Predict the structure.
Amino acid sequence: MPNEQPVFKLIDYRDPEDSKLLVEALDQYAKDPMGGAKGLSNFAKQNLAQSLAELPHAFSILMLVEDKIAGLANCFEGFFHICLSETSKHS
C-alpha cells in the first residue's frame, strides 16, 4: 500500500495546466450526487478559470495524492446583503 504524502498546489488560474486541473476537480465533484450528479456545462468548463482570475481575492488549492486529485478548496470573498424595512427590524 503506497504511503505517499499529499501535495498541495496553489492554482494559477491563468496557467492552462492548472486551469485544466481545476476544471477536472470541479467536474468530478459536480458529477457526484453531492455536487448535483451532473457534470459542468461546456460553458462553465471554458470560462471558470478566467472568471475566477478576475476576482482579486480568489484562490484555489488542489490536493494531489500519487498525482491524482484528492481534494480542492476554492476560496474567495463574498457576501450577501439583506435589506430590512423599518417594520421588519426586531428591537
The radius of gyration is 18 Å. Residues 29 and 35 are 5 Å apart (CA to CA). Helices lie at 16-31, 42-53.
